[in-house]
Amino acid sequence: MVVADLQATLASDFYWADAQEPHLSRRREILTAHPEIKNLFGPDLWAFPKIVAVVLLQFWTAYCLKDAKWGAILAVAYFFGSFLNHNLFLAIHELSHNLAFSTPLYNRLLGIFANLPVGVPMSVTFQKYHLDHHLYQGVEGMDMDIPSYTEGRLIRNTLMKTLWVLLQLFFYALRPLFLNPKNPGLWEATNSLVQISGDVAWIYMFGWRSFGYLILSTFVGGGLHPIAGHFISEHYVFQKGQETYSYYGPLNLLAWSVGFHNEHHDFPRIPGSKLWKVKEIAPEYYEGLACYRSWTQVIYMYIMDSTVGPFSRMMRKSQFSTEKKSK
């Protein structure tokens, strides 16, 4: 479990790093010591059937709730649908690294399909910004995973942090559009057209309550919800000097093992289903790092710890970007 080792009060700026992010150098060291890890690179053959199964299950659930009361819809969305839609969100994360098929086109098409129960088009845009997060981890103006200065200055107490966590999916989605907008292309248009057409068709056939379940599953699952703890656990600094943290708890089974986050950043070409093998093969590189066993506890610590907030991230100037890093 991570032990807080920070200043006594909430920081007023980011933690500025004077060195490159740690994953590129650690990857080189691990591959030198354990070259057999390269055998783990490549697509997960089970990704396609797993995604199809979750999409069909979520649509079936939405259909079953088409005549339900809103209270029941909200309850099912929070305790069940949220896990399915978050699973699809993290499937899209896998697909952004081309980890279902060797051909990027097939991954992109599957991502658009996986996007359907989420309710809002995000698959193609997510890939653009997420790959920047790997290429430019912590780099000012490039890594849109890092909160803005406005967020850091406004989110200064327990109440504001609670609201921020509740709405963190909105901040996560909208932040790039304000700080680093990218011109949409043909694939964004395709993603939007397919998604909006699918939404309209679903509403026409099964009604607003059924569609409302899908939307609620997305947004309640991205806020004050155990599985959304990974947004905070991955890179918020709870132990000074460490900027990436892994989670080794049971929710990895529903989250494409995104909790193995140090391992993922070290080896983004290894699918989530095999990341545990990285730690097994090279334990000497991971056992000394702070880690988590509970995403729920991470959310609680973030809200209640007066030393932690949106500024609790490592930031670096652009000269530390690593453009030649593997995607």
TrEMBL record:
Topological relation to the membrane, as annotated: Multi-pass membrane protein
InterPro entries in the record: DES1/DES2, FA_desaturase_dom, Sphingolipid_d4-desaturase_N
Membrane-crossing residue ranges in chain numbering: 45-65, 72-93, 105-126, 163-181, 201-224
Location in the cell: Endoplasmic reticulum membrane; Membrane
All residue ranges annotated as the Sphingolipid delta4-desaturase N-terminal domain in the record: 9-47
GO biological process: ceramide biosynthetic process
Coiled coil: none
GO molecular function, one term: sphingolipid delta-4 desaturase activity
Catalytic activity, reaction form: an N-acylsphinganine + 2 Fe(II)-[cytochrome b5] + O2 + 2 H(+) = an N-acylsphing-4-enine + 2 Fe(III)-[cytochrome b5] + 2 H2O
Pfam families per UniProt: FA_desaturase, Lipid_DES
Record-level GO cellular component terms: endoplasmic reticulum membrane
Presence of the UniProt keyword Endoplasmic reticulum in the record: yes
EC number: 1.14.19.17
The organism's place on the tree of life at top rank: Eukaryota
Keyword set, alphabetical order: Endoplasmic reticulum, Lipid metabolism, Membrane, Oxidoreductase, Transmembrane, Transmembrane helix
The protein's role, per its UniProt record: Sphingolipid-delta-4-desaturase required for the biosynthesis of delta-4-unsaturated sphingolipids and derivatives.
Family: Belongs to the fatty acid desaturase type 1 family. DEGS subfamily.
Name of the protein: Sphingolipid delta(4)-desaturase DES1-like
Organism, as annotated: Adiantum capillus-veneris
